[in-house]
Design goal:
By secondary structure, this protein is α+β, with helices and mostly antiparallel strands. It has 14 helices and 9 strands. A 7-stranded mixed β-sheet has the order 2-1-5-4-3-8-9. A two-stranded antiparallel sheet has the order 6-7. The N and C termini lie far apart (about 75 Å). The N terminus is likely disordered.
Length: about 325
């Protein structure tokens, strides 16, 4: 019997190339599934074009993959380059970038609904440090037809499906709150100020404007050598000069932006006919901050013209490391 049992013993076959290949496929599939689960779902499969390299960038991967330094990622989905919201996002990114980095946000991207030259022009006009001009800084990307923003779920303004109405008429309606309820509160807030929440980026953006010769140009006294602010004349207003955000301060900056960025450079910054047909003129923006795994820590979708994300709230929500 013992000899019979020995005759029935079984040895497993040696591994074959086919079995090795099957194992590799399984590992690749599992890794891909894990990566897909970690990616930021609203932007899955959505791309924008790098201004620096002209290569397509998968935006879900962008916000879900840390930089070489590790940490969190911020992506701003802007509007067309001559728009108030796009201009203010660029101005805020310029000022808040160091503070965002202190919170571990080591990779920042800005997508604009325009062509590459318009994006580069806006970055130059706002003195925004970006990968195009300095080799580092904010990653500048373009999405001329605004597909990325719509995938993210930004507002599309008033009567977005009306193909007969002029996009400029739609934009005029949005200035009065149609399809963009927060426009009037945001605009009026620029005139009346805010006694509670500071917005130090405003002074920085005005200083950049004055150095570039934009009007109004008398709100600040700048050091002739360094360009640093010596005196902010809004702080000299009786009583309200002590507010964190003084009355008329933001309104003055927006006047600078309108006259000497948007209108003066309209030909270079305005959307083309194809973009107008796609609804870019009335499309709003937004932003998201994700952790290393692609989970959203902060999300914002502009509810109106001039109603962009409050970066002070981002700093409050994501503490310094």
């Amino acid at each position: 019997m013992a000899n019979g049992r020995q005759g029935l013993s079984f040895s497993p076959p040696a591994p074959t190339m086919l079995s090795h290949a099957a194992a590799v496929v399984v590992v690749v599939v599992v890794a891909a599934l894990a990566r897909g689960a970690a990616a930021y779902a609203p932007l899955a499969g959505v791309t924008a074009r790098s201004v620096k390299t002209s290569a397509d960038v998968d935006l879900s991967d962008f916000v879900s993959t840390p930089s070489s330094a590790g940490g969190k990622t911020m992506l701003v989905l802007g509007t067309y380059a001559a728009d108030f919201n796009a201009i203010e996002y660029a101005q805020r990114l310029r000022y808040y970038k160091p503070e965002l980095q202190k919170r571990g946000i080591t990779k920042i991207g800005l997508v604009l609904n325009c062509e590459e030259e318009a994006a580069k022009t806006l970055a130059e006009l706002t003195d925004l440090p970006c990968d195009v001009s300095e080799g580092n800084g904010v990653t500048l990307m373009v999405d001329p037809l605004g597909k990325a923003g719509r995938a993210f779920g930004v507002g599309t303004g008033w009567r977005p499906d009306d193909e007969e109405m002029s996009p400029y008429l739609k934009l005029f309606g949005m200035l009065w709150g149609l399809g963009a309820w927060a426009t009037l509160p945001a605009v009026i807030g620029g005139y009346i100020g805010n006694p509670f929440t500071p917005q130090p980026w405003i002074e920085d953006a005005m200083a950049v404007g004055q150095q570039k010769g934009r009007w109004p140009d008398t709100a600040l006294v700048l050091d002739e050598g360094s360009g640093n602010v010596v005196t902010n004349k809004f702080t000299e207003l009786p009583v309200v000069g002590e507010w964190p955000r003084r009355p008329l301060e933001l309104a003055t900056l927006r006047l600078q932006n309108m006259l000497d960025i948007s209108i003066k450079n309209w030909k270079e910054l305005a959307p083309n006919d194809e973009a107008l047909k796609a609804g870019v003129l009335t499309q709003l923006g937004g932003c998201v901050v994700c952790d290393e795994k692609g989970s959203a820590l902060f999300e914002w979708k502009d509810p109106g013209i001039c109603a962009v994300a409050n970066f002070e709230k981002i700093l409050e929500q994501i503490p310094a490391e």
